[in-house]
Design goal:
The structure is a homodimer of 469-residue chains.
Chain A (H helix, E strand, L loop, with lengths): L15 H4 L6 H13 L3 E5 L7 E3 L6 E3 L6 E9 L2 E10 L4 E10 L2 E10 L7 E4 L2 E3 L1 H4 L21 E9 L5 E2 L2 E8 L10 E5 H7 L8 H8 L17 H14 L9 H14 L2 E6 L7 E3 L4 E3 L5 E9 L7 E9 L3 E10 L2 E10 L7 E4 L2 E3 L11 H7 L5 E9 L9 E8 L12 E4 L1 H7 L8 H11 L3
Parallel strand pairs in A: 5-11, 6-12, 19-24
Antiparallel strand pairs in A: 1-17, 2-3, 3-4, 4-5, 4-14, 6-7, 6-9, 7-8, 7-13, 10-12, 15-16, 16-17, 17-18, 19-20, 19-22, 20-21, 20-25, 23-24
Helix pairs in contact in A: 5-10, 6-9
């Protein structure tokens, strides 16, 4: 049953050949093509029994590594007032990894050291990734591979000046309480640049954000936490452009005071707490064998309705990873997700319509998500508000950003999400319930100083929005 | 086997008769004596089988209410790298309650509306409590009792101006991911004062903080979140008094800039994340029947070594609660706990030695706790640092605060903690490991804007410290 997984598929967004045409600079295009040519990657699906070091626990049915490290596939059971509700498999990875970008000034312009990195679940093999992307098992060398490059800039005594350091969540629908350390460090010494790495300005990264499946999830979340990736200050009042409203949304509180924001910061925190209070269910890990309506065959774990996702196993051979060859499980969604921020200019300031969104695996159950977030295969007809359905179908609003981007390829198999930012005119009524709140870019940026406020899809979209500066 | 539980015991701190002598004003003393006289409370231990509405689930052995609401006694299992480690019973209460204080200005002085409230686990029946102290089941009237007084000031359209609104954790050793909404609202209208309630200034509450077992845990945590309960600004530099150093610790960053603090705010956040990253274990709920080395009899659940705590059942009859009569389980610790902040004046500014402390039941496993925190019965000989052992034994340092206070009497039976603040001279060396960090009162106050930074013992001690203003 082995089969190569990276056969070209026209419905999967742009292929690698398109990707390397798109970037702004010829230099980048050349480097990326070289990296693609240099890689020797193969990812093949295998039966679970052929995985090395992984086994199903006979008591629980959980799929885990025999070292007890890395991650495992457990079950999650949600309950409403003590009564069982939804259950599914979930990726349980308690340890905290590092997603880190080294930045450095050249001629007064900040550059990010980005990596061309292969992940087994990537739809297109290589994606543009942070300088360091390592689980703790990974960087403490449990797998006895080569030492993670540039790690010394992020841990230990030789660490550079920290510009960003915050724990952030990842997909609550697929991960159990996963959180990673998002870091940005400023280097002042000479940094030796390995051939898989390249300095790019924020403007260049921003341009690449508009290419399908290029800037990976880990890079997007780290970039979202940068407090100073900001548009130039707004021009004269009444300019009326989208760019001006975006600049005011970032700068408003430091320039004009809080009055520019529809809701004060304290009101936003209270709104968020109320949403958590309304959340009537709780979630707990259970043995995978106890998850009803999901079945396991020799090579997949799936729901009987075949509506959600599958757990599969792959064998990977790679020439440019710390370990040359390994096997692992992946979570494979069916179809493409949607993440969409509705934005609106109010009194000259861009506001985003933020949703308080419960997800089974989030540490505190509820985080702030995009206006619309649909899991792969989820029907937009389920959206209560007619305007939001119309926006998803492209019938209302001005599309400011529309690109398909990939979720974490180290755990998910070809998980793609269509990210959109759609501007609605002030005269279009949006009557949403208590789970929604209008916020400025400044307010979201301030919340990102702390973890567990913005979910990973909202953080990705914030980076998409900033790329429009 | 029924027995009255509130027989006088000389080793339990001051009795009610002492308490009512202590407060600053004769008015308070008179009111408190009246409240004690008016109460008709009896709390009697019963076998589990006599509880009404509570039952042991035949499949899991968990003790839960048949409505699925309130709370349950489950098991918690910790694991290190996937291998089972410590396990124990734990109180699982997923819903978010409200701990709220109404404040109002009279003649330019802020007053708090405090309540004389009975809880079944209180060592002395009545304690000084917030205006509102209600679980969600409680205030949505699942138990069909009377409506919670003053609730309208905290929820719904008629809510007052919010001065504090933040979700905070409670005891991670005994609660599974418990969090409550800590609120302070400013009233501007006339507030009708029921006989169980009384307006007290912050100075009066501060004085009462020095009375054993009077200000309850819920009042202490809400008061700790008040951003403006501050000492007057420091006098001329070089005053050298404790009060001056405390004032500088609160005001330093707004007066002299961050240089007054040993560690910048960003460094503190990074230190905290590193402590979380080092935490090698994870915790999950398991059926209570699967917790090894704990046994259940007709009237208690206990560990075979009888070192930790017991789960017992009580029947309560009360004249001044929403429900007149009920039964419930309580967690009964063996002995008294310790919570102690070591403080030191550095460059004229008081600093607290904060510990990053993992606890099984905390939402994100690690929060910031006191320098020393010992569970009831825990031996201080286990402290690695000799200076800390000497401080606990009272051999080193100047004691600034030393009072026994109670933990939540709604869930714990006579859980007492000795709270201390001990000042160490600059010439006493304190060599602690990476789990400790020096912080100012201002930095701790800023962290309290968000949940899941300071644990409940640290928050209690912050209120103790402020009472010294």
């Amino acid at each position: 049953m082995r089969s190569a997984m990276y056969s070209p598929r026209s419905d999967r967004g742009r292929a690698a050949a398109d990707v390397i045409d798109a970037p702004a600079t010829a230099d980048f295009t050349k480097w990326w093509a070289e990296r693609e040519a240099a890689g020797r990657f193969s990812v093949n699906r295998i039966p679970f029994a052929e995985m090395q070091g992984w086994r199903f626990d006979p008591e629980t049915g959980n799929l885990a590594h025999e070292s007890g490290r890395f991650f495992s596939i457990d079950g999650v059971q949600t309950r409403v007032h003590g009564v069982d509700d939804w259950a599914q498999p979930i990726i349980n990875q308690p340890e905290i990894g590092i997603l880190g970008i080294i930045v450095k000034e050249f001629d007064g312009v900040l550059h990010c050291l980005m990596q061309a990195k292969m992940e087994p679940g990537n739809v297109n093999t290589l994606q543009l990734s942070p300088t360091v992307q390592a689980t703790r098992s990974n960087y403490t060398q449990v797998h006895r591979g080569a030492r993670t490059r540039y790690l010394d800039y992020f841990v230990g005594r030789r660490r550079g000046e920290l510009l960003v350091d915050v724990l952030q969540s990842e997909q609550g629908a697929w991960f159990w309480r996963k959180r990673n350390r998002n870091m940005v460090v400023l280097a002042t010494d000479d940094v030796e640049v390995h051939e898989d790495f390249r300095w790019l300005t924020l403007a260049e990264v921003g341009a690449l954000m508009r290419v399908d499946n290029l800037v990976n999830m880990d890079a997007r979340t780290v970039l979202s936490c940068l407090p100073f990736w900001a548009p130039d200050k707004a021009g004269p009042a009444g300019d009326g452009s989208f760019a001006s409203a975006l600049a005011r949304s970032y700068h408003c509180e430091s320039v004009d005071g809080r009055a520019a924001a529809l809701n004060a910061f304290g009101e936003i925190l209270s709104w968020f707490i109320e949403a958590k209070t309304r959340c009537d269910w709780s979630a707990r890990l259970v043995p995978l064998d106890l998850v009803p309506a999901w079945r396991r065959t020799a090579d997949e774990i799936f729901d009987e309705e075949r509506r959600h996702f599958r757990i599969i196993a792959v064998q990977v051979e790679a020439g440019t990873r710390e370990v040359k060859r390994w096997t692992q499980p992946l979570l494979s969604p069916r179809g493409q997700g949607d993440a969409l921020f509705v934005v609106r200019v109010v009194r000259g300031v861009l506001h985003l319509l933020v949703q308080a969104r419960p997800e089974y695996g989030l540490v505190d159950l509820v985080e702030m998500g995009p206006t619309v977030q649909l899991q792969p295969g989820e029907d937009p007809a389920g959206l209560a508000e007619p305007v939001l359905r119309a926006v998803v179908h492209g019938e209302v609003g001005t599309v400011r950003y529309d690109t398909v981007l990939s979720e974490e390829g180290g755990r998910f198999h070809q998980a793609l999400t269509r990210y959109r930012i759609v501007e609605i005119d002030e005269d279009v009524p949006v009557e949403v319930d208590d789970n929604f709140c209008w916020m400025t870019v400044r307010q979201l940026t301030d919340l990102l100083r702390h973890g567990h406020y913005l979910n990973v899809e909202a953080r990705s979209l914030l980076t998409c929005l900033r790329s429009l500066c």
